[in-house]
Write a structure and sequence with these properties.
The complex is a heterodimer of chains A (601) and B (159).
Chain A lengths: L29 H7 L3 E7 L1 H12 L10 E7 L5 E5 L8 H13 L6 E5 L16 H28 L6 E4 L2 E4 L5 E3 H5 L3 E7 L22 H5 L15 E6 L7 E6 L1 H4 L5 E5 L2 E6 L2 H9 L2 E5 L6 H10 L12 E4 L2 H6 L3 E9 L11 E7 L2 E6 L4 H11 L7 E4 L14 H13 L3 E4 L2 H7 L6 E9 L5 E9 L15 E6 L14 H20 L3 H7 L4 H14 L13 E6 L13 E6 L1
Parallel strand pairs in A: 1-8, 3-4, 9-19, 17-18, 21-22
Antiparallel strand pairs in A: 1-2, 2-3, 5-6, 6-7, 9-12, 10-13, 11-12, 14-22, 15-20, 16-17, 16-19, 20-21, 23-24
Helix pairs in contact in A: 3-4, 11-12, 14-15
Chain B lengths: L2 E7 L2 E8 L4 H8 L18 E4 L2 E4 L12 E3 L12 H9 L8 H14 L5 H8 L9 H14 L6
Parallel strand pairs in B: 1-5
Antiparallel strand pairs in B: 1-2, 3-4, 3-5
Classes of the chains: A alpha+beta (601), B alpha+beta (159).
Chain lengths: 601, 159
């Protein structure tokens, strides 16, 4: 990593990486909290700063409130049942399984004895969302700390119970036992009659990976049987008493506004409610077919405005880049001199790569079931950010967060596409109008037309290669498709890398790998062109221009497995090699992230 | 279209009262609460809604309930017998052939139909037959392994 420029590009929140600000969970004192959960032992993981505040508050005699900045918590009920609470959601990445393994590993209990409550804004601590591959490194470690603390508390209780030193005790299989092989007591027996809330800072030590027994082992998906028998209830499978089916009347074009609507025919249909609110028109009906027919008979007139066509898109993106401020440009990195590097080159190349808008297309479309009761709304919906969707609902209906509950059933995938709550808001609006629970599921067509997309973009690369196959210049411009992994991991003395944000013509947002995929595609395609121009084997060209030892090792291993040296291309069958990291190549964190090499035939 | 008043699902005759134009998918899910059959695209392009009609795989989103008549429909809920999973279900579990598992019901029913028509399929035949089934998480390799495992366990005979 010697000479590469340090990555300083910062993504804009919302447009290129969705984030949210911390919210609060508990506004109750410790005694009320323990009463609410029925006693037992609760271990709460609290951000270090918050815990310090809490403790200083306690010392000055303030009321003993529960801390608000709780990351995760674990409860051992008086009957010994173990429940873990996290704001993360299960969307097919199997974290319900892996996080359960983590807790079981550290608490020394079986997988089956742990229940995991996830993504329920009323029950789980605030979480910004399930995205960016952060669950295992962050939440996994936090839950491990919680479980470690729980084991420590249980050991302490047993030591007190028997009046022995805790060092003589060991936790295994849901029991604390004397190392001598004498007495043992179950976690359930220890939790009986307790009303104990223990707070842990987020920085306690945990068992090192080399000593893990359950975590890291291949195990069956939790509740796998429910999935192979069709019993698992995804959001679209839920029903509530008196529930209606919703359908939204979509505008005739993107960006269209409503001029007028004749809803009389729809209103005349038995059991149909029509909701019109601003540019929104939707219906709720006793069954899906009636809802579809009611939506079809609504005669709406829309005012459309000209939109960018696919043909014009890439030109538009390039021409409409926002002006990056010249001074301290946070989107630009430079090193050496591009003009110097280009004039020293024997081969000069210039290419443009187009990155399309693409739909996430999770097999479970956006869906929501909304129910109002006493001015409060509960929405079941498949989202990666339940707390952000709660916020959207609260804003849309002018409610306080306390009056909105979002529950995320284990969901049929998301891929970065379910960060927002438009379907939840639509279902809630229809339910409010119909005064009954409303089930709304987007069609695949709605998914492809009205969901946000992976950002489209243009990537321009100019490069120079010396006669002996060394890169002398590398100028890389990414228009709109995102800055993740924008820096090249190859060693080039003269570089200019710049990200150009654009006000996108279509709604856009996170996507699996986000920009990394686009940047790798352009960079590695161009590397092949450079190798070709210099008359050097593509793998050799990469190795000549690469110092990073781990990536070199990845290339060597991949090439060896593939038999790169002895392969011959035929007119029908060529092959190539490229490598990538899912993070920016030059960020310090990248060293911890995996390098991936692909050989494609 | 005329009303439809009964339907045979998983060996049971159900009384219903629906418009014959309604999709079989919506009737299974909304009237009979058999929600294991999934909506994925509504256009017969993803096969998440696959059910067996007289043993043949069909897209229930493209099947009007009025066209089914007296034929026997099998959904994912009908494969388990006396608490025992169908060998294909068991193999999907054992190989962990699922991520979000939204496509799993359709995958399993498609696999059951494949093994009925071709009890010992080659890898290429599995890929060919299952081509219409979409898994956006990308578990195809393990799905193929699960089908091969089920075929092996069924010793070439249908369960």
């Amino acid at each position: 990593m010697s000479a590469a420029p340090e990555t300083k590009i910062v993504l804009e929140p919302e447009r290129y990486e969705l984030r949210a600000t911390p919210m609060h969970l508990f506004a109750m004192d410790r005694r009320d909290f323990m009463k609410a959960i029925g006693g037992g032992i609760a271990i709460l993981l609290v951000a270090k700063d918050a815990l310090a505040l809490q403790e200083s508050g306690r010392r000055t005699g303030m009321r003993e409130n529960m801390p608000r900045e709780i990351n995760a918590w674990l409860h051992i009920a008086q009957d010994g049942s173990i429940t873990v609470f996290t704001g993360k959601v299960e969307i097919g990445q199997n974290i319900r399984t892996s996080l359960t393994q983590t807790v079981a590993d550290e608490l020394h209990v079986e997988l089956a004895s742990i229940a995991m409550v996830m993504g329920d804004t009323q029950l789980t601590p605030f979480d910004a969302g399930t995205f960016g591959s952060r669950t295992t490194p962050q939440m996994g470690t936090q839950l491990r700390r919680v479980a470690w603390a729980a084991r420590d508390v249980l050991t302490g209780l047993a030591a007190k119970h028997w009046n022995v030193d805790a060092s003589r005790l060991v936790a295994e299989n849901g029991k604390i036992s004397e190392r001598s092989g004498g007495r043992s007591i179950t976690y359930a027996e220890l939790a009986q009659g307790q009303s104990l809330a223990q707070m842990m800072p987020t920085e306690d030590p945990v068992t090192p990976a080399t000593e893990w027994k359950i975590a890291g082992q291949p195990v069956r998906k939790i509740a796998a049987r429910d999935f192979v028998t069709g019993r698992h209830k995804y959001t679209p499978d839920l029903k509530r008493p008196g529930m209606l089916y919703g359908k939204v009347v979509r505008p005739s074009a993107f960006g269209a506004t409503l001029i007028s609507a004749d809803v009389s025919a729809a209103k005349a249909m038995p059991g149909v409610t029509v909701v019109r609110d601003g540019d929104f028109i939707g219906v709720a009906a006793p069954d899906e077919l009636t809802a579809e027919r009611a939506a079809e008979v609504i005669k709406a007139e829309w005012k459309t405005t000209p939109q960018i066509s696919n043909k014009e898109l890439f030109e538009f993106v390039k021409k409409n880049a926002e002006q990056n401020p010249a001074e301290e440009n946070r989107y630009r990195q430079t090193k050496g001199s591009i003009s110097g590097g280009l004039s020293a080159a024997a081969h000069r190349l210039e290419s443009e790569y187009h990155i399309s808008y693409i739909a996430h297309s999770p097999l479970e479309p956006r869906a929501a079931l909304a129910e109002w009761k006493d001015g409060k709304v509960t929405v079941w919906t498949g989202t990666q950010r339940p707390f952000a969707v709660r916020e959207e609902l609260a804003q849309a209906f002018h409610l306080s967060n306390d009056n909105v509950r979002v529950i995320v059933p284990d969901t049929g995938a998301a891929y970065g596409g379910k960060h927002t709550g438009e379907c939840a808001v639509e279902a809630a609006r229809l339910a409010q109008g119909a005064q009954k629970p409303v089930h709304l599921m987007w069609t695949r067509e709605e998914e492809f037309t009205w969901a946000y997309f992976r950002p489209a973009g243009v990537i321009e690369i100019k490069s120079g290669v010396s006669a002996d196959g060394m890169l002398t210049a590398w100028e890389f411009h990414n228009y709109n498709s995102g800055a993740a992994a924008i820096a090249t991991m190859y060693d080039v003395p003269n570089q200019l890398t710049e990200f150009h944000p654009v006000n996108s013509p279509l709604r856009q947002g996170s996507y699996r790998s986000l920009a990394a995929c686009a940047n790798h595609f352009a960079r590695e395609s161009h590397m092949d062109d450079c190798a070709h121009a210099a008359g050097v084997d593509p793998l050799e060209f990469r190795m000549k221009n690469l110092k990073e030892p781990r990536l070199r090792a990845v290339y060597e291993a991949a090439a060896q497995k593939f038999g790169w040296q002895n392969r011959k291309a035929t007119p029908e069958r060529g092959f190539g090699i490229a490598a990538a990291s899912i993070r920016a190549a030059t960020s310090p964190r990248a060293r911890k992230w995996p390098w991936i090499a692909h050989r494609a035939k | 279209m005329a009303r439809v008043t009964e339907i045979n699902v998983n060996g049971t005759r159900h009384a219903i009262d629906v418009d014959g134009d309604a999709t079989l998918l919506s009737v299974l899910r909304d009237q009979l609460d058999l929600t294991g059959t999934k909506y994925g695209c509504g256009e017969g392009q993803c096969a998440a809604c696959t059910v067996l009609i007289d043993g043949n795989p069909r897209h229930s989103c493209q099947t009007k309930v009025g066209s089914v008549g007296q034929r026997q429909i099998t959904t994912i809920e009908g494969l388990e017998k006396d608490g025992k999973l169908h060998p294909v279900q068991q193999a999907f579990m054992d190989v962990d052939a699922m991520q979000c598992a939204y496509c799993t019901s359709g995958m399993i029913l498609g696999s059951v139909a494949l093994l009925k028509s071709n009890p010992r399929p080659s890898e290429a035949e599995i890929v060919e037959y299952m081509n219409g089934h979409i898994c956006r998480c990308g578990v195809y390799q393990r799905i193929g392994q699960a089908i091969a495992l089920a075929s092996e366990r069924m010793k070439g005979g249908a369960a």
